[in-house]
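Private note to self, pasted from the team thread so I don't lose it. Backbone tokens:
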């Protein structure tokens, strides 16, 4: 692929590209009133989106702000559906170029990767390297400065589509000249690109033996505590000086003591659900059972909610599955001990327990074959770590 890619507004506003962007933006949301209304009148609505894009702007341009607590307070900015279609149309053309600029051990907002791939790789690194450095960028999205971000994107994108992207970035500011709206499709990709510079700097350091990043959470493994401290001091100085961002207080510890990453507790012997995911799973299971017991839930709703519980518990392993079954067999009134039965459809079992357990079983069926994790670990032990191999190739 060339160093830069040229994208014009006419390419973004092409009718076939807009149609594909519509269905990408509507995925999982087609029953929402605004999405259903847009789809029902899609020829006229897409024509409006196309007209706005050819003018170098979004159809609406207004963001709806609301606060959530997850568990800390966050301010989310939701774009109107027409604007989301426009952003999908732009990113369908730009994403392959942005994807090529990221290192393989960055896992957020990337096709074929994601949080569970990040956990799998982090678990293998935890088993191999004795010390881990945990870094977290403080207030990442609200703190990203616009000027250096657009200068970075300019090295990858040419053409009139760059002006559209600059218009989107400049349409929101948490402080003068800084900030990306949390909840926007373009924000996810742009923040990932900006922090890609941190990835390359961390990997190039001689103390780094392995690296994983999931958005603003970074894990770096080293051979000794002294190496981890040297790496920490270097990055604490480099990040504010180069990217204008700050780290939260970093943590250095032995890998075998365990640490929390992406809502899971990682130790060399496997994964456990973190406290927040445990609370979310208990709450979801209780709501699922109570709705079923009261007769308020049909089978389609039960299947949908069970899929949510399955996602919360991914990747399903022996310890996580045992914990979920213990919750299902828990206090009286939560489906009783029948929920702990191993086989689906056991006598006396409520539908909520059947759907939740079967969701976990489907997760196991989709996973790697027995012995795959051990095979991957042995393969990794026989090869150079990623960052070392990359440095040697560069040399």
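Design output:
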């Amino acid at each position: 692929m060339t160093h830069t890619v040229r994208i014009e507004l006419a390419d973004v506003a092409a009718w076939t590209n807009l149609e594909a962007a519509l269905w990408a933006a509507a995925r999982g949301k087609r029953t929402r009133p605004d999405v259903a209304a847009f789809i029902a009148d899609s020829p006229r609505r897409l024509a409006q989106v196309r007209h706005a894009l050819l003018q170098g702007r979004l159809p609406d341009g207004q963001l709806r702000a609301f606060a959530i607590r997850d568990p800390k307070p966050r301010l989310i900015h939701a774009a109107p559906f027409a604007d989301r279609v426009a952003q999908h149309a732009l990113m369908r053309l730009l994403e392959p170029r942005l994807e090529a600029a990221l290192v393989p051990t960055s896992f957020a907002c990337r096709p074929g990767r994601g949080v569970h791939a990040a956990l799998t790789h982090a678990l293998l690194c935890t088993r191999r390297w004795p010390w881990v450095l945990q870094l977290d960028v403080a207030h990442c999205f609200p703190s990203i400065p616009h000027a250096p971000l657009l200068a970075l994107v300019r090295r990858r994108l040419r053409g009139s589509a760059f002006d559209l992207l600059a218009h989107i970035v400049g349409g929101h500011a948490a402080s003068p000249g800084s900030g990306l709206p949390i909840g926007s499709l373009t924000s996810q990709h742009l923040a990932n690109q900006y922090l890609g510079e941190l990835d390359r700097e961390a990997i190039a350091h001689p103390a780094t033996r392995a690296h994983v990043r999931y958005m603003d959470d970074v894990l770096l493994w080293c051979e000794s505590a002294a190496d981890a401290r040297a790496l920490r001091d270097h990055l604490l100085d480099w990040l504010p000086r180069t990217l204008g961002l700050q780290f939260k207080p970093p943590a250095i510890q032995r890998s075998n003591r365990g640490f929390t990453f992406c809502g899971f507790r990682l130790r060399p012997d496997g994964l456990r659900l973190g406290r927040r995911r445990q609370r979310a799973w208990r709450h979801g299971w209780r709501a699922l059972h109570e709705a079923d017991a009261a007769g308020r839930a049909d089978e389609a709703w039960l299947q949908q909610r069970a899929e949510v519980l399955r996602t919360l518990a991914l990747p399903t392993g022996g310890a996580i599955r045992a914990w979920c079954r213990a919750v299902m067999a828990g206090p009286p009134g939560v489906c009783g001990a029948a929920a702990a039965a191993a086989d689906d459809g056991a006598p006396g079992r409520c539908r909520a327990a059947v759907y939740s357990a079967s969701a976990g079983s489907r997760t196991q069926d989709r996973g790697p074959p027995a012995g795959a994790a051990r095979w991957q670990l042995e393969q990794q032990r026989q090869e150079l770590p990623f960052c070392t191999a990359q440095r040697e190739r560069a040399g």
